[in-house]
Structure to design on (360 residues):
């Protein structure tokens, strides 16, 4: 029997290495000998995230990812490792989807850095979190009215601003008297109150840096006047954009705390919103947060036949396509409108080739 020379396996390995180098698929044997925790922290610090996005991403990694993957070398993370981690998360599907996206982005960066050959999140054996979007179910009008009545009078205006102007919660808290144009009947949405780690507050531009103007309904204007007479606006000074910013902004906010400070959503949701929900027997579910009033606003407009583009502009969405995907199921059925429009066109007294064709 011919003996195998000890040098042959080494030579074969060297040939494989050279071939991988030529194909551009070679990875150093020591590549990937860095833990996911160390690499992901470096990845996070080098992203051009906003302060809020950075804090939110770090929180997700710290609470849900690092306990499972932080101690593992990158090269030891397999598709089965990802599967096990995702199965262990008893979280809302939307939140699981964001976490999975973060982990996949980090591992893709490791591939680009030649630390691992493939991203295990992209393996066919990995079941990705569902991308189906839960359909928005608008509140009935009596829920909106009930919440307005259940919330303390000092903060009842928050319900009206969210449901009557379609503002996000931070935009409601950041609305100032200078933003209201009673004469022209509109409201300028210029800022929001942002909450950072440690409950630190700052004023900043609305989401996506997108300011906008929305119509001011008469009913909202009447309540605004009543609120201003009873609770005069309070001047509040806060840093702009981030809590430690040198630049500060002073503005007369419509809604403030008893200490004449800007409202913090963590305080408001816990001490004002949820107790009111309990009093009027609205389920304490995530979809019944204050954002539900914004959905109600959109549903009213769509039911009245307003265009998706207009609703998108009033809500401050950057893409009308997003508005359409979110609310398309709320749009009234168009079949009857289509039949009526065609019937009217074909039976009009105005002469037209179509009419003559129809009558022939």
């Amino acid at each position: 029997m011919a003996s195998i020379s000890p040098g042959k396996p080494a030579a074969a390995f060297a040939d494989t290495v050279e071939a991988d180098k030529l194909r551009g698929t070679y990875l150093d044997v020591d590549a990937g000998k860095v833990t996911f925790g160390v690499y992901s922290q470096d990845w996070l610090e080098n992203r051009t995230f906003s302060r809020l996005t950075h804090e939110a991403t770090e929180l997700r990694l710290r609470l849900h990812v690092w306990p499972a993957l932080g101690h593992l070398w990158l090269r030891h993370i397999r598709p089965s490792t990802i599967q096990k981690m995702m199965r262990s998360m008893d979280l809302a599907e939307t939140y699981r989807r964001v976490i999975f996206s973060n982990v996949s982005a980090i591992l893709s960066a490791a591939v680009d850095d030649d630390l691992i050959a493939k991203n295990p999140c992209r393996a066919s054996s990995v079941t990705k979190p569902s991308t189906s979007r839960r359909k928005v179910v608008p509140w009935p009008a009596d829920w909106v009215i009930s919440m307005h009545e259940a919330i303390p009078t000092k903060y009842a205006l928050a319900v009206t601003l969210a449901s009557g102007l379609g503002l996000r919660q931070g935009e409601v808290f950041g609305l100032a008297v200078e933003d209201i144009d009673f004469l022209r009947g509109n409201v300028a949405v210029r800022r929001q109150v942002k909450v950072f780690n440690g409950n630190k507050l700052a004023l900043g531009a609305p989401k996506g840096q997108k300011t906008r103007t929305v119509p001011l309904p008469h009913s909202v204007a009447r309540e605004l006047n009543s609120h201003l007479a009873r609770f005069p606006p309070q001047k509040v000074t806060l840093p702009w954009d981030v809590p430690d910013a040198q630049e500060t902004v002073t503005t007369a906010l419509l809604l403030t705390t008893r200490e004449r400070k800007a409202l913090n959503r963590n305080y408001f949701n816990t001490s004002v919103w949820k107790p009111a929900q309990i009093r009027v027997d609205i389920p304490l579910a995530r979809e019944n947060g204050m954002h539900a009033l914004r959905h109600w606003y959109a549903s009213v407009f769509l039911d009245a036949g307003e265009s998706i583009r207009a609703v998108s502009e009033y809500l401050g969405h950057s893409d009308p396509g997003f508005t359409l995907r979110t609310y398309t199921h709320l749009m009234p059925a168009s079949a009857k409108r289509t039949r009526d429009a065609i019937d009217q066109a074909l039976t009009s007294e105005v002469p037209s080739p179509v009419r003559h064709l129809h009558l022939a």
